[in-house]
Write a structure and sequence with these properties.
Elements lengths: L7 H17 L8 H8 L3 H4 L1 H13 L3 H8 L1 H20 L4 H15 L2 H12 L5 H29 L4 H4 L1 H15 L12 H12 L1
Helix pairs in contact: 1-8, 1-9, 1-11, 4-7, 4-12, 5-6, 6-7, 6-8, 6-11, 8-9
Length: 209
């Protein structure tokens, strides 16, 4: 990735925003589960799939990050992943049944799986080797701050508005990140790369089980 110091703050903001957004969704929904359970008519064991489906889907599809980054380039893949995450977040927020919500959460986990590792790659490319410790410190702030803020922000949104806003909160953040990425982020070259799809399927089967 080409180093553009003048654009670096905007790129960092876009990257850290999507990282926090993705990590936030691992914990922000936790406190909204009782309200979801009541409105969707689910049992306590059924409603837990709202959390489990997202985490499992994200874990399974994260190893594909390198493959799609090489095939599409960092900028395009970031835009695809962020756009997909925003869209599936909106679908989660308008779901009217537990089955719909679980399906949309799986899709949200699939689209958001690459955001954290991809953002880490972009951050390291923005800095020369001797300054990459600083880059990882900034990136680590987004990774740790998201899950920490999740329960507090989720509780406030649930009480003040509705559990649906624990998903709608991703929309303005994601749209802003897409705009900044389109405006400031340079792309990386595409590379031809093979993928062990059989191995990926077996890993996904094992992790899903």
């Amino acid at each position: 990735m080409t180093d553009r110091p003048l654009n670096r703050p905007m790129i960092i903001f876009a990257v850290i925003s999507v990282t926090m957004m993705q990590m936030l969704d691992t914990t922000i929904v936790n406190v909204a589960l009782p309200q979801m359970q009541g409105q969707l008519g689910a049992t306590s064991s059924e409603i837990s799939w709202v959390l489990t489906s997202y985490i499992v889907a994200s874990t399974i599809f994260m190893p594909l990050t390198g493959y799609f980054t090489d095939r599409w380039g960092q900028r395009r893949f970031l835009l695809y992943a962020t756009g997909g995450f925003v869209l599936t977040s909106m679908l989660c927020g308008i779901a009217f049944s537990l089955s719909q919500l679980v399906v949309f959460r799986i899709a949200q986990g699939v689209t958001g799986a690459a955001l954290a590792p991809l953002s880490q790659t972009i951050m390291t490319g923005l800095y020369p080797p001797e300054q990459r410790g600083r880059a990882m410190a900034i990136w680590g702030l987004g990774v740790t701050l998201g899950p920490v803020l999740g329960p507090t922000l989720g509780g406030w949104l649930t009480e003040a508005l509705s559990w649906r806003w624990t998903f709608f909160i991703n929309l303005p953040v994601g749209v802003l990140s897409i705009i900044l990425a389109l405006r400031y982020m340079p792309d990386s070259p595409n590379r031809t790369r093979s993928m062990d799809w059989t191995g990926f399927a077996l890993i996904g089967l094992a992790e899903g089980a």
